[in-house]
Amino acid sequence: MKVQGRPQVSAVAPSLKISDYFGSQVFGLKEMQETLATPVFKKVSTAIDKGTKIDMSTADEVATAVKSWALSKGATHYTHWFQPLTGSTAEKHDTFFDAMSGMEKFKGSALVQQEPDASSFPSGGIRTTFEARGYTAWDPSSPIFIFNQTLCIPTIFVSFTGEALDFKTPLIRSTEAINNAAVEICQYFDRNVKKVNPSLGVEQEYFVIDRALYATRPDLVMAGRTVFGHNPARGQQLDDHYFGSIPSRVKEYMKDFEIEALKLGIPVSTRHNEVAPGQFEVAPLFEDINKATDHNLLLMDVMEKVAEKHGLKVLFHEKPFAGLNGSGKHNNWSLITDTGVNLFQPSNSARENLQFLCFLVATLKAVYKNADLLRASIASAGNDFRLGANEAPPAIISVFLGSTLTGILDELEKNGNIKIEKGDNMYMKLGISKIPEIILDNTDRNRTSPFAFTGNKFEFRAVGSSANPAGPMTALNVIVADVLKELKKDIDKEIEGGKEKKIAIVNVLRKYIKESKKIRFEGDGYSEEWEKEAEKRGLSNLKSTAEALDILLSKQVTDLYKRHNVLNEKELHARHEIRLENYVMKVQIESRVMGDLALNHIIPTAIRYQNQLIVNANGLKGLGLDHRAAIETIEEVSKHIEALKSNVSNMIEARKRVNKVEDITEKAKLYSSEVKDAYFDKIRYAVDKMELLVDDEYWPLVKYREMLFLK
């Protein structure tokens, strides 16, 4: 085939040593220190560290330095790089060149703020079409970089009236909320702690297929996933692709996008084959959560652009191929103090282990209290197809700790009331004096858990591969910040009642362990027994995005986000509406693609093949030969054609009815139940059965075996 004969594009690094070019396209602290006057650099570094405002004179100094650096790197344009609620990044390029003066110009005002037309970005009713003005504002905590000869300035995006229209703004606010709450708890143990930063490492899963094969599949082009396609005889059942030798063409692609990522300061460190054929993973080192989020979105952009150069197509949809593993974006989250301590890292010190337990138990309680919000944070049309199948976690939110930590918490809960005599080692009596330092080596992993403790961090495995990680990370920051505030209040109350500080902390932790016990689950998240057990425990099983998003309108969630100044009621309601509209449009597009392929491609092909079979059957009959096999095939094809025509027709009528519904919440639920759930599987079944019957030469769609195995 032509696919196998395609020329291989070699990736060439600018140097044998990564350290020679890492961050070469980034205007970071090092570049600032080298190009800015010391007082100016101090102001900027303080703004980055403490969130203080940068005055215009300082901005002018930075803009001058940035312009000189960018021009020396070959940049011709600049843009504010932001994250609107479309789910992708956005940019509007302006040239440095000023035709009036004949010179390149770039002022501080252009660095700090721009005014993109906001009328076409999703706003959820925050602004109307005639109120087009929106503002982007420089986020100095995320490095400026050059991509495709354009200087990119990471920014927030807000409406004319100040409401957040992006993912970055609430993430930054939530980071401040958890910083404030975490520092208060740390002060019980170490007065030197003045700041706590959430840290994030994002494992990005993706599929790679040949670009020409991709172009022949209208469903992949229009919907990002294959709406039809019978599983090949060999899929992932042999587990031979996982961690196997990387196909040479894909390996060169990986090397190429890694080189570009490293130039942009993205610390990519891991590459490997994933479980499904054609599926792979890339993972960077941990970074500050804001920078890590920006880097993940930038990495996805880099991967897509570099794939074009190699004649490949990268797929970030959560479930591009039915019956195979879906793709996730495993968010590995932890909290790091400015003294260098990971608050989720067990220690040899009993005192530090008590601090570790404070943050561990607070996180457990936060997930228990807000499980539905976490489910909503990862809800999308694509992720609905992935959750609960082929090693993806189920829609039921639970926490996996492993046997070691489970035993420690059980011991603490049981022994919390033991009498502590003077001179007694309290930590030893409570069973927390010798928590194994590396929990990861003392417990198994549970791939069916949506939220698992993995040694010194929590891994939020339920996040979908195409998602902006800022959404779920904002929710996680907020819920943990809220419980940490509650923890501080409850401990202080115990201390005011006369309890010694360590005893007060243990008493409250014991109470929290009992309250959050229902969220802990160590078993098989796919089993029917777990669904029944989860229902007994009162845990939700929200399988559809349409129903999962209802929680965003609850008083509990509204008050939570308002309490921590992350999202006001107007911003929260806007996000609810935008995400429901997005869900409706995604299901609608998939429905239309299914109808188009069925009526204009599959049925005509099946009828043409059926006609050939009829000619064959009549010929056999005329010769007096047995023609029963041909008749049976004709009848089977006819049965599937009729089922396909009937179901497509009924689906179209259902879509027309649902489109008349004005309330977006009701419309989304109806699209889920009366369009997707009612017809998608039925239509697919008929098409996939016909794929096995119709002559391969006639079949109009490239098959799974070709897309997944031909590189």
From TrEMBL:
Gene3D superfamilies: 1.20.120.1560, Glutamine synthetase/guanido kinase, catalytic domain. SMART domains: Gln-synt_C. Transmembrane segments: none annotated. PANTHER family: GLUTAMINE SYNTHETASE (PTHR42974), TYPE-3 GLUTAMINE SYNTHETASE (PTHR42974:SF1). This is Glutamine synthetase type III. Residues 167-602 form the GS catalytic domain. InterPro entries: Gln-synt_C, Gln_synt_N, Gln_synth/guanido_kin_cat_dom, Gln_synth_cat_dom, Gln_synth_gly_rich_site, GS_Type-3, GSIII_N. Belongs to the glutamine synthetase family. Residues 76-162 form the GS beta-grasp domain. It holds the Pfam family Gln-synt_C-ter.
